[in-house]
Amino acid sequence: DSGVTQTPKHLITATGQRVTLRCSPRSGDLSVYWYQQSLDQGLQFLIQYYNGEERAKGNILERFSAQQFPDLHSELNLSSLELGDSALYFCASSPGTPPGTDTQYFGPGTRLTVL
Amino acid sequence: AQTVTQSQPEMSVQEAETVTLSCTYDTSESDYYLFWYKQPPSRQMILVIRQEAYKQQNATENRFSVNFQKAAKSFSLKISDSQLGDAAMYFCAYSTNAGKSTFGDGTTLTVKP
What we know:
The complex is a heterodimer of chains A (115) and B (113). Chain A has 115 residues and is mostly beta strands. In chain A, 0% of the residues lie in helices and 50% in strands. In chain B, 0% of the residues lie in helices and 54% in strands. With 113 residues, chain B is mainly β. The chains are: A mainly beta (115), B mainly beta (113).
């Protein structure tokens, strides 16, 4: 158990819908990262937050957005869902000083299925 | 843009033998960090080993060690005395001080009893 929690574990929805994935980092970690892993593929970095501020952005679609709240939990919002958005979405956290240099601890992921 | 290449989609090793997984990367940064992660069938991402680019000494964690060649931008993972539990997909990853991470496409390792 990495100490990072993600909810829900599984999510099934229809095209065109909007969903919110939630992540609680390890206690004391300031950085949160979001990744997308499509079937049998590597991880695509989406976005990183550090202490509430967006710090780095990867290949995140405009239909996707994220935020980190004052209590440091983070949410990833996916809207106008398409079939191709079906994937495993990982959240990771790290102490974050400086961001990107320390080990990321991954949550168990949220499996999103878009029908 | 940084890229990470794992040229071996699949590898297999006999139990108790040694196997090396390859990883190369491309970057213009001088300071960065490299990682190997393991993803077993449970899909949980588990850190195997980490290397700071400014350190010349290769990182070692029990049966896992790396061969870090900074000039060649190569970062291979050696697994000694392979065990059945080592079977998984292994990802090489690169991270910068700016917080952006790049992962390779992974190598699926099979361990034969």
